[in-house]
Write a structure and sequence with these properties.
By secondary structure, this protein is α/β, with parallel strands linked by helices. The chain is 42% helix and 14% strand. The chain folds into two domains: 139 residues, HAD superfamily/HAD-like (Rossmann fold); 73 residues. Strand 6, helix 9 and strand 7 form a beta-alpha-beta unit.
Length: 229
């Protein structure tokens, strides 16, 4: 095995608020209106608004992402009748795009990437907006990676074959020399269809909805034992 390819969400990071698309500062900015965030009405509004955050569209940079997140919040505001001011919309948008605290980085990620780097080529393949790369840079993780591909650079999300082809091209690697780690079964199956080996990550604090029939680990230490075996 020459290449380890990691998904991000559920493998490297988790959402601190339990949901990927709530800005970390939402409770402070919304005030009493934040009580709506986990209601059935909010869920219905979210389903109507989330198309703005489609990670399968091309999003060239952070400012393009910021515009999409602004429209998402405006749509939620109209549906929820929050009556946000332009300033509140701007604060939520910027917090959404720039505040790294909405993600938690699993404690074993940085140490194990450092241990693996002399032995393997490391990379990330994630369905994500451009801000994720900024956060990865702030965590000093991009330096540990030989390549990183996000869906909004490709205009497709996993398990679209274009995603796996993109990371293989960046690495200059053959599929059979790659091990792909993700928490979602459909993404793992896509990797297998592309010729890679695959392992499901099932972090106890962020368990996937479905476990697959292939190898499953709960930590990077367990992943390392599996690789060595």
């Amino acid at each position: 095995m020459k290449n380890l390819i990691f998904d991000c969400g559920g493998v490297l990071v988790w959402p601190r608020l339990g949901e990927w698309n709530i800005p970390f500062g939402a409770f402070e900015i919304l005030g009493k209106r934040a009580a709506d965030l986990y209601s059935s009405r909010y869920l219905q509004a979210y389903r109507k608004a989330v198309h703005w955050l489609d990670e399968g569209q091309l999003v060239p940079d952070i400012e393009a992402e910021r515009r999409l997140r602004r429209e998402y919040i405006r749509t939620l505001d109209a549906l929820m009748e929050w009556r946000l001011t332009p300033g509140e919309i701007a604060r939520l948008t910027d917090d959404f795009t720039d505040n790294i605290n909405r993600y938690g980085l699993f404690e074993d990620v940085a140490p194990w990437l450092k241990r693996w780097k002399p032995r393997y080529r490391l990379s990330m393949l994630s369905d994500a907006m451009p801000s994720l790369l900024n956060f990865m840079d702030q965590w000093k993780l991009l330096d540990a990676l030989d390549a990183a591909v996000i869906s909004t650079q490709i205009g497709a999300t996993k398990p679209d074959p274009r995603m796996y082809a993109a990371i293989l091209e960046k690495l200059g690697a053959a599929p059979g020399d790659c091990l792909f780690v993700d928490d979602r079964v459909d993404n793992l199956e896509g990797a297998v269809a592309a010729g890679m080996q695959a392992v499901q990550m099932a972090r106890p604090v962020f368990l996937p909805q479905t476990l697959w029939d292939g190898p499953v680990v709960q930590s990077f230490e367990a992943l390392n034992r599996l690789i060595e075996a």
